[in-house]
Every structure is written in structure tokens, then in C-alpha cells.
Amino acid sequence: MNTDELLTKLAQAARGDAPPLVDVAGGILEAIGETRRPSNVLLWAFTAASTAAAAMVALAALFQAPPAPTDAFSEIMRIVAPVI
Amino acid sequence: MEIQATLAGDATAYKRLVEQYQQEIARRMWRFTRDRRQLEELVQDVFVDAYMSLKSYRGTAPFANWLNRIATRVGYRFWKRRRRTTNQAVALQDWDAFVARDEGIVESHEAAEFLHSLLAQLPPRDRLVLTLLYLEELSVAEAAERSGWSQSMVKVQAHRARKKLKAILEKSGKTAIVE
To answer: Are B32 and B45 in contact (CB under 8 A)?
Structure first.
């Protein structure tokens, strides 16, 4: 007997095998809701985090001390001094 | 009608659809697991997936066919997530007599358990093709349609899967294979 014949014979012998009764209809709508929820949570979490980060950057920029006033000569000297 | 009602937002219509098809889908998913709790989870997964993609059902083929394709995808995904069992073939009593005789001396559930544990030792792809061709008794064309593979891929995969199975059986001492 080859493998094909063996599988055919086993499958024929297994033909009457049936699963137990299942009933998922009662909870299907809840299951669908559960499947949808995680993606919304992730989206809201990402949006909240992005908004918070943007607000922090804006606040930091608002309270940052203004740069000290400089003239052009001082700036040039600051750059070339190490070379000289 | 239930499909149109579901798409129109009638949730109870979908519940009725599930009631109509759940036992048939359970028969499909029984090929993928012999555990009752996992069976219910898989059946539920099929109907959740079906709901999410219901808009893609064109109505050109019977709804059951469309649902069976989703069931196959869910089952295949389940196998890919699980680790393959090895060396756990259930002993088949009266193996030699079973192989030698045509009479049904083996109980159907015993044969199913044995076949399930045997196929569980194959990689998911090999297992799926043999499940579709032998347990589901599909033709090559039907197996291709159910799995989403080409017919040539089904044939090649089936040939490879049978070879691997033969090696497993010979290794476990089931020397009835003479091919």
C-alpha cells in the first residue's frame, strides 16, 4: 500500500468523525467589538503621545532664554580665534 | 438577505448568519484542532474575520464557499503559530489488520485522532494540503481554490508532503508503506 492509498483509507475510516456542537453566535458581536477595540486604543494612545510631545516642544521654545546679543565682529572672532 | 442586512448595520442579522453556518465551520475547524476549547475559539475567529471582510463578498459563489476559504486561512494561521508536535503519533490499535483489511474495524474517531496526530508532525503547508485533499476530500482544483494556491503548487506540495509522511511512518515502525 502506498502513502496515497493509506491516507485515503484512513480518511475514509475517519469519515464518520464529527466535532462537538459549538455555539459561538451568542458572543459573536462582543468578539467583533473586542477585535475592533485594540486598534482604536492604539490610535488614541499614539495621538495623545504625539500631541503631548508637540506641546512640550512648544513650551520649551516659549521659555527658552533669548540668545545674547552679538555683533558681526565678535561672531567672526569667536570662529577664527582657535585658528589664530 | 442576512448579508445585506448585516452590511446595512443589523447586528442581529449577522448573529443569525453565524447560527446558520457555525456547525459547518466547526466541521472544517475540527481538522485543525481536536481540542474543544480551541475549536470554539477558531470557529469564533472565522466569523470575526468574515464580519471584518464581509464587504468583499461579491455573491458570485455560495456564501459557504467564501466562508470555507476564510476558515482555511484561520486554521492555517493557527498551525503556523503553534509549534509542530513531533514523535507524538497516537498508537493505532490493530494497525496491521487495519492496513491489510478493507472492513472498518477502526472507529471513526480513532482513525481521525490517529490521522490528526500523524499530520501534526508535518510543517503547516504540507499538513494543509493533505488535510484538504484527503480529510476534506477535495479535488486539486477545489483545494487550490480553498487555499489560494495554484493547482500546480497543490500537486507539488502534496507529492512532497506524502514523501515526508512516508519517512515519518517508516521511522515509527509502521512498515505498511511499500511505495
So the answer is: no
